[in-house]
Amino acid sequence: MKKLSRRAFNTTVGKGIGAAALMTPLTWAYGSPNTHKSQKKLGMALVGLGSYSTYQLAPALQDTQFCKLSGIVTGTPKKEVQWMQQYGIPKESVYNYDNFDDIANNDTIDIVYVVLPNSMHADFCIRAAKAGKHVICEKPMAMNVAECDAIIDACQEAGVKLSVGYRLHSEPYTQEVKRMVSEKTFGNVKYLSADAAYNSRGNPDQWRLNKALSGGGALMNMGVYAIQSAIYGTGENPTSVTAQEFSTRPEYFKDTDETVTAQFEFPSGAVANIFTSHNVNANRLYASCDRGWFELNPANHYGPLRGSTSSGRTIEFPHERQQKLQMDDFASHILSGTPNKVPGAMGKRDMIIVEAIYKSIAEGNVKIPLEFAPMYGFGE
Ligand code: NAD
């Protein structure tokens, strides 16, 4: 038998696992994707046509299996024409922020994906639910916990499904981390370190640096990824958090946090340190366990991600757009009741933690206790 080099072996094994991991539950249920091409695709409307919708979500929707781009909601008339032409969207499926509620009468739209500045998430998610549409809300879910509750309640009342735009839960590297944690491949995780940060040098008037529109700085924008890593990288919800804030460019970060670190304790005794910043690039998840370690580096950008472990394995999977996998997962949840990997409770849990981190900083870096049911906020 031909001997495989370690790299070739890792790649081959990775691809095998990747193919399995990338098969959605509908694929498992009905066979290969080609066998159910005729299945109805759910129509999706993107609300807010900024950079994430333009460069990630709309292109990903050209490739999705269970949903398609059917409508747009924008405050910029010039974009209406561009998007109608580029994506073949009919005029009657184009809305602005004022007439958005008329979307209730549009049967071609099943899902509304809110991709606006954070301060607008709650309003548009609630209006979408009242219009009878399933909802995806971008991260961070809202400005505070009270708004998360209002979104969850509105979706429950309307009987529509709700998900948050944490795309990593649908991509294979993160699923592999979750597998190693739940199967205790290296024993129990005892220490986790998570970094999620980028170096912001752009327009100082952008909404992300304006607290009224963003709700906060690095912590709200990138910190939620580090919080997520700490939780799926240990498989537990934290029982306390202690946090610190650092500022080196107050003239640029006038209104929002520049750099935040925080330490979590977990029920098992594991501890985690997270780092988030708008002043430096950092993107990594590292977990030290009883009998070894695993790492993703990078851990949370659009991919391809990359991983390694103490056993010498390189974690590699074929690359697919994370947003394609994420939106198909949610559509599949609606169409056939497959698990909702990112329920509203997950976004709310993270906002409870964000509020606790800001509280710890405001009160002089004190330890803030956290109380969650063991699996609260975990995907189904
Ligand atoms: P962006 O600034 O590129 O776009 C924002 C959009 O909102 C624009 O179309 C803008 O016209 C519109 N808008 C309406 N009212 C506005 C106002 N008062 N101020 C500013 N813009 C206004 O932002 P983005 O990067 O597309 O982010 C949108 C949302 O998506 C945010 O919640 C962000 O956190 C989230 N996001 C998520 C990911 C991810 O990987 N899941 C990546 C990027 C952004």
Commentary on this structure:
By secondary structure, the chain is α/β, with parallel strands linked by helices. The protein has two domains: 143 residues, NAD(P)-binding Rossmann-like Domain (Rossmann fold, 3-Layer(aba) Sandwich); 173 residues, Dihydrodipicolinate Reductase, domain 2, CATH 3.30.360.10. The protein contains eleven helices and 15 strands. The chain has a nine-stranded mixed β-sheet with strand order 14-13-12-11-7-10-9-8-15. It has a six-stranded parallel β-sheet with strand order 3-2-1-4-5-6, sandwiched between helices. Strand 9 and strand 10 form a beta hairpin. Helix 3 packs across helix 10, helix 6 runs antiparallel to helix 11 and helix 9 packs across helix 11. The chain starts with 5 loop residues before the first helix and ends in an 11-residue tail after the last strand. 49% of the residues are buried. The structure holds nicotinamide-adenine-dinucleotide (NAD). Nicotinamide-adenine-dinucleotide binds next to helix 3.
